[in-house]
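Query structure, 433 tokens:
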């Protein structure tokens, strides 16, 4: 990272549960920390913890390591599963483990959400002065011990501050990433981080301290906004970023037509808020560049994701009727006209062009910036737009392979980059007004 981190006075430290404070004092110092946020994940978190234990033992036997489970008040026994999970290292041919893995199992404080859980993990990392951290989701079924090395080794040995995950996913898993987050983040900040909201990250202890110094914990960052915030803050702060190939991400995928409005609003709200905070970073950047990739890449099978195209199209078209007055305030007239032109298309030919979609997202960002209406209402009004674009993407790619679908996402990203001047010209006009 380019900037030094100021030391925080004792009074500003996040107060943790007394038992956790005691454990931190007893541990005193550690080299590595792996954090797992959780809420009612008893059916999956045991596998995650065992993979972490095996990964630390196999790849970092010389390091003092801490596992932190930051729990949101689970009622299904999740913390007990974390406490009891164990691995027979002998049957894994891991016999040279020298250190002892400390476990801190603690409830987090603050707004309910993944971001608040991460805040506790960051604070423990800062107190223990760790060199490298990783965070992994509690519902992963595809995590292996190798993930731990791939998330931590670039920080410990490669001089990187932030490690994003690179997964192979079903072409209809991660549609918020594919249609909004990846193209927009890439066009704005000029780095090709494929999974900016992947959920599983590696980062330096120094970057964890930077995260703790930001006053964002009463915002959408406390919830689903945490992943994109971490990625963007890393890039904007000048941190060295890379990504590691982790294979398949198998979790509990959701139908894009299901109710994702809360997640969409929090993720996109965080992106739009960061636009204002980091204008000096994204405005002058042009194009995009690849970033280093670690890990052996291979083909994997992915679980299918069922989608309901008709439901998504119906929701979008209902928005054209019910939300038209709101969309007229959010979108440029020509953008709304282009979207309205899809009204009578048959479902099997439904199509929202890349250029129209990029302008739609940029228009929404500008409306958010201009405060043309309540920001919460604006973000919620984006859900039918997102569903319309997702339906268009599904119709277009139904007969394509995963590789061919990835090429289509690449084309969309290039359109976002080419149309960035559309955003810049109007953003500048806003500033001058």
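Result returned for the query:
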């Amino acid at each position: 990272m380019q900037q030094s981190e100021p030391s925080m006075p004792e009074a500003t430290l996040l107060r943790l549960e007394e038992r956790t404070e005691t454990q931190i004092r007893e541990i005193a110092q550690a080299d590595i920390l792996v954090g797992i946020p959780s809420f009612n994940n008893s059916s999956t978190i045991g596998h995650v913890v065992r993979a972490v234990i095996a990964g630390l033992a196999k790849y970092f036997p010389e390091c003092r390591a801490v596992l932190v489970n930051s729990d949101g008040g689970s009622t299904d026994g999740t913390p007990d599963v974390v406490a009891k999970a164990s691995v027979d290292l002998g049957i894994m041919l891991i016999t040279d483990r020298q250190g002892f893995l400390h476990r801190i199992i603690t409830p987090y404080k603050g707004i309910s959400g993944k971001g608040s859980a991460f805040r506790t993990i960051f604070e423990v990392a800062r107190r223990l002065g760790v060199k490298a951290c990783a965070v992994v989701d509690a519902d992963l079924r595809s995590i292996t011990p190798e993930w731990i090395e791939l998330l931590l080794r670039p920080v410990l040995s490669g001089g990187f501050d932030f490690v994003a995950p690179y997964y192979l996913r079903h072409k209809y898993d991660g549609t918020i990433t594919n249609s909004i987050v990846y193209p927009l983040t890439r066009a704005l900040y000029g780095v090709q981080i494929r999974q900016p909201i992947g959920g599983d990250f590696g980062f330096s202890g120094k970057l964890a301290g930077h995260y703790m110094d930001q006053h964002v914990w009463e915002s959408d960052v406390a919830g689903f906004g945490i992943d994109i915030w971490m990625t963007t803050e890393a890039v904007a702060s000048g941190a060295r970023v890379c990504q590691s190939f982790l294979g398949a991400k198998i979790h509990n995928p959701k139908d894009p037509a299901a109710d994702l409005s809360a997640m969409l609003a929090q993720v996109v709200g965080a992106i739009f808020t960061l636009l204002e905070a980091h204008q000096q970073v994204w405005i002058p950047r042009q194009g995009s560049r690849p970033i280093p990739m670690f890990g052996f890449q291979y083909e994997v099978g992915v679980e299918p994701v069922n989608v309901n195209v008709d439901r998504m199209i119906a929701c979008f078209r209902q928005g054209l009727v019910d939300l038209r007055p709101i969309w007229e305030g959010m979108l440029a007239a020509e953008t709304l006209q282009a979207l309205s032109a899809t009204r009578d298309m048959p479902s099997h030919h439904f199509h929202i062009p890349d250029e129209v979609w990029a302008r739609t997202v940029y228009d929404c960002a500008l409306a958010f910036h201009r405060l043309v209406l309540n920001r919460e209402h604006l973000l919620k009004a984006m859900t039918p737009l997102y569903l319309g674009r997702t339906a268009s993407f599904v119709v277009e790619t139904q007969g394509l392979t995963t590789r061919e679908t990835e090429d289509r996402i690449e084309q969309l990203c290039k359109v976002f980059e080419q149309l960035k001047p559309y955003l810049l010209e109007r953003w500048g006009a806003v500033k001058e007004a």
